[in-house]
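Q: Here's a chain of 413 amino acids. Please give me its 3D structure as tokens.
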Amino acid sequence: MKAAIITIGDEILIGQTVDTNSAWIGSELSKSGFDVYRIISVHDAKDDILYALNEVIGKTDVVLITGGLGPTSDDITKPVLCEFFNTHLVENTQVMRMIEEMMKRRNNPMNENNRRQSYVPESCKVLTNATGTAPGMWFEKEGTIFISMPGVPHEMKYLMNEHILPELNKRFTSQIILHRNIMTYGTFEARLAEILTDFEKGLPVNIKLAYLPSSGVIKLRLTGRGDNQKKLHEQISQQVDILYKTIPEFIYGENEDPLEKVIGDLLIQKKQTLCTAESCTGGEIAHLITGIPGSSGYFKGSVIAYSNAVKSAVLKVPDDIIAKYGAVSEEVIRLMADETRKLMQADYCIATSGIAGPDGGSDLKPVGTLWMAVSSEKGTISEKRVFGTERHANIKRFSLAALNLLRKQIISR
């Protein structure tokens, strides 16, 4: 079973609005056994919308369309759909009644734009929308189902959950599609693919592996297809077991959990605490950690020692050590971690010092250089890494590298 998604709206094409609708729709269709083979975004222009519709008709089972159903003059989806399906707009009394009730409930006056939304193409099946004024519309032509929905995410999701997915699941005998995500960190994509060459060759024909990298984290997604859910689940679990044996040093979790969530779970389990001493990351690590619900139970606090003066005055790093080795050095970073752990009375402390860029580097310490350390009762470990030259990307990479070093220290014996 094949599906396509069409999003309509200039705001998506110019980057003003991020298209989260397609991602959500694609995920839900996949769960129902559909292969989403195409996502198209087009202008609020008749010719562009018609071109997209003609591109997918007869080539796919289902087309999900979002956007262009509002009450203003630039919302042209309904007239274009009328032209495509050779029909015309008619007033739907049920939709009109729902709009009137909604406007009354919200204490808003009705106007001509609101009334216009009760007009729908005569040939469509109307999908009532209890969360907004624009209804969904179901068409069928040349063996393809077309479903048009509002672009407002919560309205789209209501129509998908209440009307569209239940009906599609009745109409189509769904194949079963299962996904399993394994989260990795500590190597680059090309190297990981090289390590997993034999693993990929040994995969059953109905299971595929995808590499999804982002800021150093590589998500390995195993996707299995079949008609027996229990058997498919067992097949994927077997392959996951093989992955754990093949790359144990890189796997840190599953289910798209970020490193900071995995670390939080470990600290809760061990009843231990954490603090940070950040220079080049400027509080990014603390921000990631405190973004996890419940982090107040294990996170003590952070010192953002961005200047050498703070490193000396607050963290007690001697001026002569900074002068001799530089702020971005193993000697300084280890002292930052040790002294902050003492100050915060925490079980662990992460410390970072580096050159985020785009300037400030040297031949010995180029832009992208990071020194990081983790202090604990097990001792203090430190590591140097060199990344790229883009400042914001470096701050993210520095933070993840430090978090992974902490994770390895927590689980070490």
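Q: Can you summarize the key feature?
A: The domain at 259-411 is CATH 3.90.950.20 (Maf protein).
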